[in-house]
Amino acid sequence: MSLIQGYVLGVAQTADLVLAVSDQDASLRAWSKEGALVLEMQMPNKKPAYSVAAQGMLAAVGTRGGGLFLIDLSSATVLHALEGHTNNVWSVILDGDEVLSASYDKTIRVWDTVSGACTQTIHAEAAVRGLAANEDWIVAGLSDATVRVFDRASGDQRHKLREATGWVMSVALDNMYMVSGANDGKVRVYAVPSFTLVHVLEGHTATVSSVAIEGDSIVSGSDDKTVRLWNAHTGAQLRVLQGLSHYARSVSLLGSEIVSGSYGKSVRIWNANTGALKFALDGTEAAQPITDVLEALELDAAAAAAQEALKAALANGDPGELGRCKLMIIGQGAAGKTSTVRSLLGMKPEKVHISTVGVELRRTSAELWSEEAFDSGFKRQAMRAAALRMRTRKRPTLRSRISRRASSMLPGRRRLSAQTFVAEEEVELVAEAEVAQRFDIAEIENMAGKTQSGQTISFTIWDYAGQDVFYTLHHIFLTQEGVYMLVFNMNELLQDTELALDYLSFWLNSVKLHAPKAPVILVGTHYDQAFDSLQAVEAILRNDLQALRGVKLVKNSLQKVSFFPLDNMSTAEDRAVELRNAVERTASKLDSVSQKISLRWLKVIDDLMMLDCDHVPFEVVQELAEKYHAGDQTDELLKYFHELGMVVHLRTTDTLHDKVVLNPQWLLNKLARVIADDIHVEQIYYDEKLSDLELDDDFKLLRDKGIGTFALLSFLWDDEEVAYLLEFMRDTMLLSDWAFSEKLLRKSRDDGPLYLVSSLLKTARSDDLDAKIAEMDIGLTCVLDFSEFFLPDGVFARLLSLCAQYSGDIGSRKHAPQLAGRQAIIRFGLSVFALEQIDDKIWIRVEKDSDKPASTLKMLVSMFQGARDAMFRGLPWDLLLQSPKNPSILVSYDDIVDAFESGVESMPAIGTKNAKLADFVPFFEDGSLKEDEEENQDGTAESPPSFPLSSDLQYHVFLSHKQVEAGDACNLMADKLISRGLKVWVDQRADGNLSREQMQNSIRASKCYLLFLTKTVFGSRSVCMELETALQAKRPILLVHESDPNRVGFANFSTYPKTAPRNAKHLFREAESMPFQRRLYLAQGFYNELVARIEGAEAN
Ligand SMILES: Nc1nc2c(ncn2[C@@H]2O[C@H](COP(=O)(O)OP(=O)(O)OP(=O)(O)O)[C@@H](O)[C@H]2O)c(=O)[nH]1
Ligand SMILES: [Mg+2]
């Protein structure tokens, strides 16, 4: 085609095109990156063209005399002549829906590409030669040797940079640097957003008329006939591109390509990495229709739209479908669970049985069914959301938008909004570079055309260990949301039917308890050994497995049986294809899988998982959430992902709340080191480190008596997150403090605290304990009867934990509980009782000469109730009372209460004749045994009973404490007591400052005085004064002490009698201090007891 007839004063490029404008022939030309000429057109005003910008299929060209044109490259047509400038337009930018232009008329103008209207004019006080912009700033290089920085939104000038000593010919800008080229021959680099000078790049020997920046690289073109490449961070000169015969007047940098235009009437394309010249173009190249490259251009435009949609979707927090499901594999040990998982994932069969420890986690997705790395689904969901936006508001091409715009301006037509995406709040959640890197823009375009359904679900497979030792762990992780797969061995069901059914029942009941609405898929393994027994197995399941009732069973409609038979030994990769289908179908129906959540939440979890850490402090999550404008939802989003089994985040105490476990497997592995099966016990036993650390005795103690030393637990956990793990186990009642001395350990050692891991006692039996219980002189006996449903593993062990904790917390008369797997004798201060599990019942027997046996029973019942609610919510049980007159008579507690209320004298007993009501009176000495349960059940506490108070008194109790150590505890305690109908004096509640006299009056007006013991309580003058007053006024004194070792106020109990004022030391001999209880399941018992003590307090 025709030779370029003028200096090339402007160049630009897109991914597919190189553009150049020249002055004398007033032309715009475009080439493919392969050097074919695809466009040649003259500007309508026939004026020399000075500047060009390109974006997708659009170009903007500035000319002498103020001409500015918006051009559609695909059709070589002018879309708009943008009229306003009155002098040469030396620089132009295309940015989204805007054109920015700079002119010798001393203005910068901003134009709307759709309407062609000028939307903003900035006055720059001197002729503008160079122009650059990013989201926040507009930067201009001026003829008065300054660079001016304007706020892009308001157009206000913010900086005036005076370092240049001649015309500033060109500027470039990204989010880190601003670069200027001036006719003093210097390239200057400024930091953004401070706009302070960081480098002066020296090397050019004449005017620098053009600069460009991309990432780490700066390119400059100069009248010294060179183009130079620099490192933006260090300012080092990397390369000098030589061989130009004339001034280099324009440069452009995109990816690995540098384009330069010169007075030599030619355009050059260089490889930025090697400095090699790829093409020298002069307009005579062979022509190629632009439609050949159009396809790529269209893609470009689509990509731009997709990117825009994506950004808007993220900024708005558009909802994404989670598309994630937890698949839980449960069943008897060695039933073939892990093998079934292998079959699902198409892995090779494994003949040897490698018993699973704790739980094993794997991830996969439907369709693919092979093991995968973690994918939060964020990327997929962000793309979906963007696609959805594109589909609903498919962006028309600019040409059609312009013509629509023209027609909409006809009278009577409604104006269409040019604003395509309205982000509620403009937040950049993903940096643009990251968008390009992490998202497949073409895929978004593609998705936009598809229907919404058919999305792939990803699964987290939880392969639980089948061995009994781990059962105590499981219900922590059996969650409501997800699909359960209950695996059994077909062969064993046929041969050892009763046992197999027992296991199936146990697991079905567990699911019914923890996830009553979750679907269950039954899988029969060993089909290879029982291939002709399909119907026999079916018959057993249908007829003899009562526990199936009430379960949401997924049926095998193809084979018309209730389970999915599977041969895990088959080498066929799709041996579990039916099962996979069943899982996919079942999962896709779950609400939680299609639930929509904010992309912001997904982004937070995605970033968290990218950290690839086992656990992080809560603040890390908080910071991320804040970054994505979800800072106020951190707890909420963690709770959500916790319930889905993606993270573990408990919140009952600060230690727990402060930690977020990102890899549940980490936690499970740690737990399984303590609650280990025989194989792993062996491993630990033969670990040389155990002996090196002299922990052999400790380990034996743990295995024999369930008592762990701090040193041993630290060793088992590799000294990692010991405080958190202790607290986790404590909170899930797997562990309690063991506040008793241990003979088995050598005296010489300072062992630090001891802990009880009660589930390790599971198989421990003690004939000795049997005999001792038989010898006890029992006063009152009651039974927690679970036979209506079942008594899950781990309930009894947890009760032992609670009792051991409470027993140790009590300050005086300590006596170590005697514990075995199913029996225990425990002392709470003055009361001694036995616990025993027999089948589905737990027996509580309180010794006759115990202090107030009824109140001990009441306390235990409410403790158990709390434990049940915390770990086994919804587990039904019945409270039975044994007649103190006749041990063979058991009566339901509720029947007794009914009888009392209706005034009859006898009621039906279980299994025998009637029982006499009067015999059961001793149980009610402390009021109703289950009152709190009734109170809680309907959620509304009835108006509290009012406790009598003689007319000369105003308060039931005066709470005395040291504010910094027990302020929160006392406030809580006051609330609880007030809600139970007591009048309480606590100093934060008194108005104004209290005079000594007022304080003394209040103590005298209180029925009793309660002293909250904390570390330095006796160092407080006001507390000592209050105590003194109480002693003088002969008020009954109650003691409560801090029992949480993690609190500042905690102290070893023995310090209290030591530090107490002399005249108060007797208190520790006379009264028993109560450990303060914050935990829900212990708190109820605590308050019942406290109220009883306040009520029963008598003045001495
Ligand atoms: N013949 C045959 N053997 C099987 C089949 N499924 C599992 N097995 C074998 O049974 C044994 C136990 O299988 P696992 O999958 O490890 O059992 P598990 O239920 O995960 O066991 P735990 O993790 O200890 O609870 C292994 O030796 C397997 O090879 C089957 O369908 N046919
Ligand atoms: Mg296994």
From TrEMBL:
<dbReference type="InterPro" id="IPR036388">
    <property type="entry name" value="WH-like_DNA-bd_sf"/>
</dbReference>
<dbReference type="InterPro" id="IPR020472">
    <property type="entry name" value="WD40_PAC1"/>
</dbReference>
<feature type="repeat" description="WD">
    <location>
        <begin position="82"/>
        <end position="121"/>
    </location>
</feature>
<dbReference type="GO" id="GO:1990234">
    <property type="term" value="C:transferase complex"/>
</dbReference>
<feature type="repeat" description="WD">
    <location>
        <begin position="201"/>
        <end position="240"/>
    </location>
</feature>
<dbReference type="GO" id="GO:0016301">
    <property type="term" value="F:kinase activity"/>
</dbReference>
<dbReference type="InterPro" id="IPR020859">
    <property type="entry name" value="ROC"/>
</dbReference>
<keyword id="KW-0677">Repeat</keyword>
<dbReference type="InterPro" id="IPR036322">
    <property type="entry name" value="WD40_repeat_dom_sf"/>
</dbReference>
<dbReference type="InterPro" id="IPR015943">
    <property type="entry name" value="WD40/YVTN_repeat-like_dom_sf"/>
</dbReference>
<dbReference type="GO" id="GO:0005524">
    <property type="term" value="F:ATP binding"/>
</dbReference>
<feature type="domain" description="Roc">
    <location>
        <begin position="318"/>
        <end position="590"/>
    </location>
</feature>
<dbReference type="GO" id="GO:0005829">
    <property type="term" value="C:cytosol"/>
</dbReference>
<dbReference type="GO" id="GO:0007165">
    <property type="term" value="P:signal transduction"/>
</dbReference>
<dbReference type="Pfam" id="PF13676">
    <property type="entry name" value="TIR_2"/>
</dbReference>
<dbReference type="InterPro" id="IPR001680">
    <property type="entry name" value="WD40_rpt"/>
</dbReference>
<dbReference type="InterPro" id="IPR019775">
    <property type="entry name" value="WD40_repeat_CS"/>
</dbReference>
<keyword id="KW-0808">Transferase</keyword>
<keyword id="KW-0547">Nucleotide-binding</keyword>
<keyword id="KW-0418">Kinase</keyword>
<dbReference type="Pfam" id="PF16095">
    <property type="entry name" value="COR-A"/>
</dbReference>
<dbReference type="InterPro" id="IPR000157">
    <property type="entry name" value="TIR_dom"/>
</dbReference>
<dbReference type="InterPro" id="IPR032171">
    <property type="entry name" value="COR-A"/>
</dbReference>
<protein>
    <recommendedName>
        <fullName>non-specific serine/threonine protein kinase</fullName>
        <ecNumber>2.7.11.1</ecNumber>
    </recommendedName>
</protein>
<keyword id="KW-0853">WD repeat</keyword>
<dbReference type="Pfam" id="PF00400">
    <property type="entry name" value="WD40"/>
</dbReference>
<dbReference type="InterPro" id="IPR035897">
    <property type="entry name" value="Toll_tir_struct_dom_sf"/>
</dbReference>
<dbReference type="Pfam" id="PF08477">
    <property type="entry name" value="Roc"/>
</dbReference>
<keyword id="KW-0067">ATP-binding</keyword>
<dbReference type="InterPro" id="IPR027417">
    <property type="entry name" value="P-loop_NTPase"/>
</dbReference>
